Amino acid sequence: MPRFSIIVPSHGVAGRLSQALDSVLAQSHGDFELIPVCDGPDAPAEQLVAGYAERDSRVTPVHSPPADGLAGARNTGMRAATGAYLLFLDGDDTLVPGALAALDARLTETGDVDVLYAEHERVPWWEGEPTNPAALLLPPKTPAGAFSPDQVPQLTGVQLPAWTAAYRRSFLTEHRLVFPDSHYTDVGFGALVALRAEKAAVLREVVVRHLVRRQGSRLSLPGPHHAQLLDQVELVLTRATELGLHEERLVPLFDHLFATVLKTAAHPRRLTSGRRAFFRRAGRLYRRHRPAGFRPPGGSLGVQHRLLASGAYTAFCALRGVNRSATRAAEALPRPRGLRTRLRYARALRRPLDPGLAVYCAYWGRGYACNPAAIHAKARELAPHIRAVFLVEPDQAHTVPQDVEYAVIGSARYWDVLARAKYLVNNANFADAVVKRPGSVHLSTQHGTPLKKMGVDQATYPVVAAATGSFTKLLERVDRWDYNLTSNRHSTQMWERAFPAAHETLEYGYPRNDVYYTATADDVARVRRELGVPDGSTAVLYAPTHRDHHTGFETGLDLEAFCEQAGEDVVVLLRAHYFYDRGQAHSTGRIIDVTAHRSSEDVCLAADALITDYSSIMFDYANLDRPIVVYADDWDVYRETRGVYFDLMEHPPGPVARTPEELAAVFRDGSWAGAESAAARAAFRERFCQFDDGRAAERVVRRVLLGEPPEAIPPVIPLAERTPAPAPALVRS
């Protein structure tokens, strides 16, 4: 029995069907059967499919007449399937590379779940920017493994397309679950599956690339077929009542179904006739099936709920007209959320720029950190006349020094300073709604050297592209930049590819790395004391990067076992990626959790050596000229799913270990600090530490904030003439 049966209806998509079939046959996981569903022996897709069947025994075509529609084609494929799990793929969609391997791995982790929900990309027909709606619809806090739908009630109310999940075939057979005959067949099938499933799981990874056709979905076109939506709503809610679905799950199910109903009822181009009849029937269903605990949402949508419940069709039509008029008026304003905020921001934009105001932000408001903080500190020394305001999220205000002004993101003051500041400094990007005013100066400082693909270069890596969102919006944000900072020539070249725009590149180094050349032995000793590093120990910083294909932080390494095997004097400073910073340390034994420590630079100063995988921290740490070991247990997977700019295995900054045993051996035998390690590090520093010399912040302040000409900016000190901060071993001696 194959692991997967992949059912591909082909009606009306013969021109693109080969892409769908090729995407399946090219999967690295080969334990599957592919079931194309053709209209009949003389159908346009028949000859194409026959050729695939001749070349690959895993291709088994079946036939379903066009009159049976999409539901009939899928049901025919289900009857022919023999695999343990069923997947449905539209004939003009594709499986992303590695999709089946990811599904198989996740199912191995979770066991035999009834349904495994996954993410998908929506790609415009003109190959525009993909979006990932499932990432927003799937509940963000689902259990790590298999779970009962009762544990995640809101999942019952999420109706995703059939091709965004894998279904256990025996589960579907046992409960006689098939696709209802309807244009809204996915609504009925998805809900019935959710009602019957006893074990479910979620894969936070894109599996399918769904082509958004130029002519649009049948469900977005006008016609009487929209009445079939109510057939599915009635079917699902009746079945939920028969099964005695608990109110905690019934409420989100009801909410989602009627959100879809109201969207259709309010759409001026879908129901060209029969709108009143649709509205009245929907109202009857609403009143009959409304759960006792259901509370309508707020705002305009809540008003629509109440009008539907009362059958007030005329008032509903009037509200729809008012909402459309308000939308057109609001689109003329700047784009912050909330009408009051838009108006306030619009007024502030009419006021003159403040030439003495600079706004700083780091990591989307995570606090006073990174290059923006280093530039701000130097500006207080060299440009004290410039007032500074740091932007932070509400829960990060405590990270800002007491004598530094700050504004909470989203507040009225936040929008006021963004509108009036002449200088705007960020290591990521400001919000989409921020307007680039003539005369303002935007500086992008970045926050690392790119090993992994970034910006528009992520477009061909679906897992990452889905998380990135619209590349059009990304480039609109990049177009606001006047300057972009780099720390080496490699970064200069990669940023120009990843962020194509008209800004000027400043090869000045990263200001946050200045401390690696200005810190003293006392600074190193102080930081080690603050972090709790025991006297006489060898502190190894373990800093793995984020995995886009993982649902949470996974060390991938038994750190306690590593300490035992590496040496009795070894302690580990664990620093997870900042995505997983929860503000609390979880230190145990010889493991010191420094994830929540605000300064990665301090943590690096305290460490005798660095263990990392593919994190950009290696490029910064190399400035200290201390040993670096690469732990690359999943390099091939990372390179395939994330994409990289160069082969780290060919040009590492030190020894490379592939297994925990190899990693421990590197420290046990001393090769982590040996001659070969030093030689690899020297070559790495020559390539990636070109512009970091301890004076980067000064160069930035003089050029950007003080407006000094390029020829007046202090030159970069040659690498051979720089003296890094003393290593902890020297401090101890």
Question: Can you walk through the features of this model?
Answer:
The chain is of the alpha/beta class and 733 residues long. 39% of the residues lie in helices and 14% in strands. The strands form 3 sheets. The protein has an 8-stranded mixed beta sheet with strand order 3-2-1-4-7-6-8-5. Strand 2, helix 2 and strand 3 (62-63) form a beta-alpha-beta unit. Helix 8 runs parallel beside helix 10, helix 11 (299-310) packs antiparallel against helix 12 and helix 14 crosses helix 27 (696-705). The termini are far apart. Mean pLDDT is 88; it is low at 579-584.
Distance, first to last CA: 66 Å
Largest sheet: 8 strands, mixed
Radius of gyration: 29 Å
* Poorly predicted tracts of residues: 579-584
The total beta strand count reads 21
How is the secondary structure organized here?
Layout (H helix, E strand, L loop, with lengths): L3 E6 L4 H12 L6 E7 L7 H10 L6 E2 L5 H12 L4 E4 L5 E2 L3 H12 L4 E10 L8 H5 L27 E4 H6 L10 H12 L3 E13 L15 H15 L4 H20 L8 H15 L9 H12 L2 H18 L8 H11 L4 E8 L8 H13 L4 E6 L12 E4 L3 H9 E6 L14 E4 L17 H7 L2 H8 L4 E3 L3 H10 L5 E3 L8 H4 L2 H11 L6 E6 L15 H8 L3 E5 L16 E3 L6 H7 L2 E4 L4 H5 L6 E4 L3 H8 L13 E2 L2 H9 L6 H14 L7 H10 L22 H5 L1
Parallel strand pairs: 1-2, 1-4, 2-3, 6-8, 9-10, 9-12, 10-11, 12-13, 13-14, 14-15, 16-17, 16-19, 17-18, 19-20, 20-21
Antiparallel strand pairs: 4-7, 5-8, 6-7
